Amino acid sequence: MAPNTHSLDATADRAKIEALMRRHKQSWHVRCESGIDPFPAKLAAAKRLVLFRVRMFGGILEVLAPSFAIKRQHSTS
Predict the structure, then answer these.
(1) pLDDT digits (tens, 9 = 90+) for 4-63
(2) pTM passes above 0.85
(3) Measured between alpha carbons, how far is 32 from 25 in angstroms, rounded to an integer?
(4) Residue 18 and residue 11: Cα distance in Å, rounded?
(5) Could you tell me the strand order of the sheet in which 59-65 lies?
(6) Could you give the CA distance from residue 59 to residue 56 in angstroms, rounded to a whole number?
(7) What is the pairing mode between strands 5-11 and 50-56?
(8) What is the DSSP string of the chain?
(9) CB neighbours (10 Å) of residue 61?
(10) What is the CA radius of gyration of the chain?
């Protein structure tokens, strides 16, 4: 694990992924007509995604993706 990383977690729980997507949609502050709303397609794609949570010292990074990697960077100095 990278030195600033406290813990890593990954889940393919579709309910948790969809709940995260719904919470984020509220922050879009956008209303779309039903025929052009991209959200149903995004929800349909959720079954192919994994929710990764990286807990760092100072915050949490949440990533929705099919895969995710963290690599340790070596100092060049």
Answers:
(1) 778 889 999 999 999 999 888 888 777 777 788 888 888 898 889 999 998 888 889 899
(2) no
(3) 12
(4) 12
(5) 5-11, 50-56, 59-65
(6) 5
(7) antiparallel
(8) --TTEEEEEEE--HHHHHHHHHHHHHTT-----TTT-SHHHHHHHGGG-EEEEEEETTEEEEEEES-----PPPP--
(9) 13
(10) 16
